[in-house]
Amino acid sequence: QVQLVESGGGLVQAGGSLRLSCAASGRTFSSYTMGWFRQAPGKEREFVAAVTWIGGSTYADSVKGRFTISRDNAKNTVYLQMNSLKPEDTAVYFCAAGNRLSVVRARSPPSYDYWGQGTQVTVSS
Question: What percent of the chain has pLDDT over 70?
């Protein structure tokens, strides 16, 4: 069983930045594709970004150019750097892990086996 713990959420003004972290347990982190998803009140969970076990990445059109996903296998951690934040970015952000997912499968929530508890990001206008 893989445990995922997100941190780094909070309240920020529009135009500001936050960096989210997701720390993973287990001994096979380097074989996981890691993804970030978000869910706002009254809306479905949506894809944000993902990075594969070999370093390829993919982004939702709504965050491309503003967000950057990265991983540090030595620390069993994946990051989401969020810049130029907008009020519509307000949501609970979830970290997810799946075994060797391609950049295509990584965009779909059902592809993932493990999920973190989520961290709240609120962007004020």
Answer: 100
